[in-house]
Specification:
single chain, ibrinogen binding protein from staphylococcus aureus fold, alpha+beta
Amino acid sequence: MAFDGVFLHQVVKQLQPLIGKRINKIYLISDTEILFIIKGYQSFQLIISAHSVYNRIHLTDRSYPTRLSPSNFIILLRKYAEGGIIRSITQAGLDRYLTIEVDSKDKIGDKMNVEIYVELMGKYANVILVKDNKIIDALKHIPPFENTIRTIQPGARFIVTAPQKNKLNPFEIDDVDIEDNLTKKLVGFSPLLSNEVSYRMQSQSYHQIMQEIKESTSLYLTTINEEEYFHCIALTHLSDEHQRFDICEGLDYLYFKKEERERIRQITGDVFKFTRREINKLTKKIDNLLISLEEALDCDKYRHYGDLIFANLDKIKKGMKSVTLADFEDNLITIPLDEKLDGKGNGKKHFNKYRKLSTGQKYINEQIELTRENLEYFQLIQQQLERADFNTAAEIRQELENNNYLKPKTRRQRTKKPVEPNYTRLQYKDKIILIGKNNIQNEFITFKKSNRFDYWFHVRDGSGAHVIINTANPNEDEIRFCAMLAAYFSKNRHSSSIPVNYTLIKNLKKIPNSKIGKLILKEYKTIYINVDEEKINAYL
């Protein structure tokens, strides 16, 4: 990666069309990401990330999930900047921070000017709202005891990051020595760019290279051993092969999936811990129940002990810890005793244990069945989380909150209308196929979105996605593709000859008082299928 000062210089050029446009809406995407909706003759989406690794700023066309409950910083950002006009977007020299100046109005309509400082400096990345040189708020606070130079707290005086001294602006000089350490000599030069410029200077002039950088509107991506490197010129010192994007498009391509994993981690970190804890607890409970069941199945032994004790009361006294008696077939049996009890007391104690274990068998079996069902549920939740996108992960968390397994992270807000679950909808030739990737989605597409004469697919004897095709007469190719999808979205995806059941929706029935997504099949057929991931990825 190389989001250095020179690259930011080129990004800022892409942001100039925002000048004179109105900030219409401001949303929080994650703990470190903010989305600005900016409108003029056309609409723009501006994303700013203060993530310690993925910090950046660029325009985006992607649809980002936004949080219903804004942070305090977003509330203040909306108060001071929403509805305002962007007056300028400027970079401080070639350092990795820029200023967005906004002309806005206060509650009574008086004009006010605010600045949004975007600092893209690795772990120190931040977004700071400033008015009249005082900090209104910031995405990340730095109290006085943590930094003797800059305090980032509401009400503190804002101190602009000190510019890099003793470095030259690479666009304002005519040449450099090929032997120079350009990172130390030139402002805005990362080691990656320095290496590329030095390499190119073997066959090009410094002026030609800088002119190409200055005129570039592209992002060049080079991938080596799954490591990604990019800049606004091709990184020929690494490889002759590269992908080329428009700058903002390339940043979206690079960071969207990476940041999505981070967003998922933010909302599901405690969910993973909870499910792992429940799985461990339920696994131990089943082990203990099986031990209890084994003992309960051996309950006749205690009745036999009681019979022998009552037949030999004269041989048993208080204080004895055990007694060896001949049974009714002349076999010697050693019986444990309670030394505090006499013969009758010990006989009754063994009979009571026999009755308790005998009647407890049914209860233990019921507990084993219930515990196994709960274990399968949390194993399914964990499996769904491992492959979830942000919206699917959010729905899984919502399901656990609804079932009182987790406390809500934030106070729920009323919505104007129910939002459909984030199920997958794809077109296969002339048919529509629906895929549910968590319990909420499975329940929705199966019982609310489908027709009773649509066909339903699910991996046999395992957990996975519900797959539905909107036809009562699927042909063999459609059956095989839907079965492949059901196998792909299951824990058996890497197996071969995976059994998948399929039937009409009308043959499905919800199990009363069961967890969401559970159902029984009246009639069904089974197909055995291998997963062709290349074919599936062509449609997803």
